Amino acid sequence: MLAYVFWHWPQSTIDPDTYLDHLTDFHQTLAANKPTGFHYSVVFRIRGASWLNTKDEAYEEWYLLDDSAAMDPLNEAAVSGVCEEPHNRVAREAADGIGGLYRLRAGQEKLSEARCAVWLSKPAGVSYKDFYAALQPLTSQQGVALWGRQMTLGPTTEFCIHSPNLIALPSGYSGFQPQFTRIYSSNNSATSGQ
Question: Which domains, from first to last, does the chain contain?
Answer without folding.
Answer: 2-185 (3.30.70.100)
